[in-house]
Design brief:
The complex is a heterodimer.
Chain A (H helix, E strand, L loop, with lengths): L4 E3 L2 E4 L5 E6 L6 E7 L6 E7 L2 E4 L8 E4 L6 E5 L8 E8 L10 E2 L3 E5 L1
Parallel strand pairs in A: 2-11
Antiparallel strand pairs in A: 1-3, 3-8, 4-5, 4-9, 5-6, 7-8, 9-10, 9-11
Chain B lengths: L2 E4 L4 E4 L4 E3 L1 E4 L5 E7 L6 E6 L5 E4 L2 E4 L9 E3 L8 E8 L6 E3 L3 E6 L1
Parallel strand pairs in B: 2-12
Antiparallel strand pairs in B: 1-4, 3-9, 5-6, 5-10, 7-8, 8-9, 10-11, 10-12
Classes of the chains: A mainly beta, B mainly beta.
Amino acid sequence: GAGVSQTPSNKVTEKGKYVELRCDPISGHTALYWYRQSLGQGPEFLIYFQGTGAADDSGLPNDRFFAVRPEGSVSTLKIQRTERGDSAVYLCASSPSGLTNTGELFFGEGSRLTVL
Amino acid sequence: GDSVTQMEGPVTLSEEAFLTINCTYTATGYPSLFWYVQYPGEGLQLLLKATKADDKGSNKGFEATYRKETTSFHLEKGSVQVSDSAVYFCALSFFSASKIIFGSGTRLSIRP
């Protein structure tokens, strides 16, 4: 499809395990964002890529969280030594050139992570 | 820091009722303001936006006016439909910044 695609849609893991979440943005979009949405809360910013580089990673909560976008398209969010507090829906969004354009982000449906 | 506060839900209305969802913001400077909507089983999508004071954003019968004096951006619709049932998020951004800041969301349910 033409929208932002996220996989897996659901992931259940055990405390301490490693998890990877994938995002495939809209073709041609240079800007890519990761957000985290906890139950009953709004999306919380994690990291923003412009092309291959992380332009702003100020929202990553600690060094267990890392994200890459090696070819400027698909991005992977990596979480090491998962904790129960990491349970949330992880949202990916893309935009043609970042918020300096229309201000509009195009979101995927999210990856729901549950840490037991 | 910059933040958005919106009324807590859930909000339940009958079809054709008038809708208001309150949103206020705190920001240094003059941000752009947005309403995003999340329909069941779908990703968030932009509903409407306003980029400067007194601007009115509108889409699908929804409206919101950027009020600098009250730092508000309330969402309104004159006659809601069952298909409007969704979660609505108020948000702000500065175009020089790298992120949108979201409120906590308001769940809206419309009874037939």
